[in-house]
Design brief:
heterodimer; A: about 300 residues; twelve-stranded mixed β-sheet; 8 helices; B: about 350 residues; five-stranded antiparallel β-sheet; about 25% strand
Chain lengths: ~300, ~350
Amino acid sequence: MTINKHITTFAGLPVKKVRATMDPPDDPGGYAWRLTTNYDGGPSRFKKRFEALVNADWVGQVTAIVVGDWGDANDDGPPLKRLIGAADRFTGLRALFLGEMTGEESEVSWINQSDVAPLLAAYPRLEVLRVRGGEGLEISPVKHESLRELAFETGGLPVEVVRGIEESDLPGLQHLELWLGTDNYGGDVTVDDLSVVLSGARWPLLSYLGLRDSEIADQVADSLAGAPVVARLSTLDLSLGMMSDVGAAALLAGQPLTHLRRLDLHHHFLSPEMMDRMRAELEAAGVELDLSKAQGSETDPGDRFISVSE
Amino acid sequence: MSPLVVIGNPDNRRVSLFRAAARAAGLTDPTVVAWRDVAAGAPVAIEAGSLVRVDSPGEDAEVDRLLRGADEPAAHGEIVGLAAWYRGFLGALRRVELAARGSRLCNDPSEIAVLFDKRACHALLRSQGIPVPPALDTPRSYAHLVSLMDDAGWSRVFVKPVHGSSASGVLALRRHRGRVLATTSVEPSQGRLFNSLRVRDYSSPETIESIVDKLAPDGLHVERWFPKADLDGMVMDLRVVVIAGRPSHVVVRTSRGPITNLHLGGARGSLQEVLERAGRRRYRAAMETCERVGVCFPGCLQVGVDLMFSSDWSRHAVAEVNAFGDLLPGLLVDGRDTYAAQLAALMPAVVA
C-alpha cells in the first residue's frame, strides 16, 4: 500500500506550485510553496524553480515550503545543501515538508532521505518539519528551541531516528508523529525503544502523539495503557496501523482516555463489537473517535497490513 | 442495406452486446463468424458488400490454442506462447482480410496487427509526435533489462509483453541499490506463469528475475514509469474510446496501485472530478491527443486509448492503444453505448 494523494494544504496554508517564471503573488506568506520537478524536467527543473523562489524579491515573506520530487528521489537525497545555503534568504520560513511525493512519483520507502539535523540547525526559527521517506533518514542530536511539530512519515522507521529524537533538545515540541512502518522496509523500532517517548519526559508541551502506520500497533497500544505521556495529550493518533481487538482492549483496560480530545484509529482491524465498546466508552465521554476505514477483524497478524509500506 | 458481419467468439458478451445494439438500431441481426473456425483454418465466407467488424478472439481457450498452434489448451489464466499466438493471429487476420475483399472492414487487420505489437505501436505513436513515455531497447533477459535501466539511468519502469493485452504479464518495476520491487498480476506457479485477478508485490530478486526471464523470449516492451495523477487518493488514468475519429466514451479508471485495469480491482472514477483537477484546457489537449491517436489508425472505426495525466496534471501521455478497447458495458453517451455509437457512425454506410 502506498500514498496516492498530494496534500493540498500544509501548515494551514493552501499549497501553490512555484514556477520558474511567475508574477509576484499578492500574499506570498499566504501559501505553502511547492517546489517540485516533473517527468521531463529532472533535477535541473527543480533547481530552476528553487532559484526562482530564492531570487524572488518576496522570498523573505515565504513561511512554508513543500519540497516534492527533486529529480531523482530514488538516487539522490533531498536538496538539503541547497536549502541550508538559502537560509539567509528564507528568513520567514516556519514550516517545511521534505519529500511530499505520491507512490506514483516514488514510494515512501524508496525516497532517499538523509540527516535532517543540519537543516534544523540552519533554520533555528523553523516550527514545523515533516519528512517523508525512511531510506537513509537520520537525525543527529540537535538543539532547537522553536520546533513545535516534528513528523517522520516512513514505511519503516529506523530505530536510530527514535534515538536521535530522544537525544535532541526540543523543548517546544507539541506534536510528535512517527510512522513506524514494517520491518520489511527497515522499521526496527520495538516498544522498548519507545520508552522515552512514552514517558513524555522530554517534551513538556507535547499534546499530540502519533505512533502511526505500525505493524506493532497492538503492542504500542498495550504500552500506552500505562504510559505517563498519555495524561498530557489531547490527541492520540494510532491510525494507519495493524491494530486489532487485542490493542483496543488494552487501551480500554488501561488508564482513562476520556481526557483526550481525539483518538484516531482509522485504518484498523477491530471487530464490530469492539468498535461499539470503544464508542460507548469514549464517545460518550466526549472523545472524538475516528474508527473509519475498518479493514475487517482479522486476528491473524499475517492477514493484517499497515496502510503505507512500500 | 449492407449486411453486418462480426468476427468474434459467438458466446462472448462482446458479440452479444454488438448484436443487441444492432437489434436496437432496427438492423438485421449480424452474421457471426466464429474465431474458432477462422483460427482452425476453415474457409471464411463473407457475403460481398458486408460491413465486417473484427472483435476480440480473447477469453476462449480453444481459440487461443488454435492461434498458438499448440496441442494442448493453456491452463486457466496461464501466460504462455504469446509470440506464437501473435503469429497465429496475424495468419487468421490475413484470412479474414482475404474473405472480406468485397466488403468493408470496420477495423483494418494490418492496423490491428500494429495494435497487438506494443513496440510497433509505441514507435508509430512516437513518430507522429504523440506523447508516450520513452522506451528502452528490447531486453533479452532480466540481467539485460537491469543493464539497460542502468544505462538509461531509470530506476522505475513498466515492463510489458509485446503481444499481451489487458495488463497480462505487465510488471511495474522499481530498482534501487540492490533492492527491487515489482507490482504485477503475474503469479508464478510450478515453473509456469499465470494471470491472477489480484495485483501483488514481489520483492525477491530471484522471483522477479524468473518472471522476466520467462516473459522475455516472447518479447518485452519497456517504458519509463510515467507517474500518474491521483484522484481522491487513488491512482488514475482514462480509457478513451475514439469512435470515427472522435473521443466518444471516457471511463476514469482508479486503483490503489500503479496498475489500473478495471478487471484487476480498479474502480470507475468521476469524470467531473478529472475535469476539475485537470482544467478544461488540459483536458481538451488530452482529448486532442486521443483524436490524433485515432488518426494513426484510419482503418479502425474505434480504438481504445489509455491516457495518463502526470502526477502534477501538467501533461499527459498515452500508455496503450487497444484494438478491442470498446467493452465498456452500460456506459452511455447521448443514450448510446460504445456499440450503438459505432453503428450510428456507420449508419450512412449501412443504409447506403
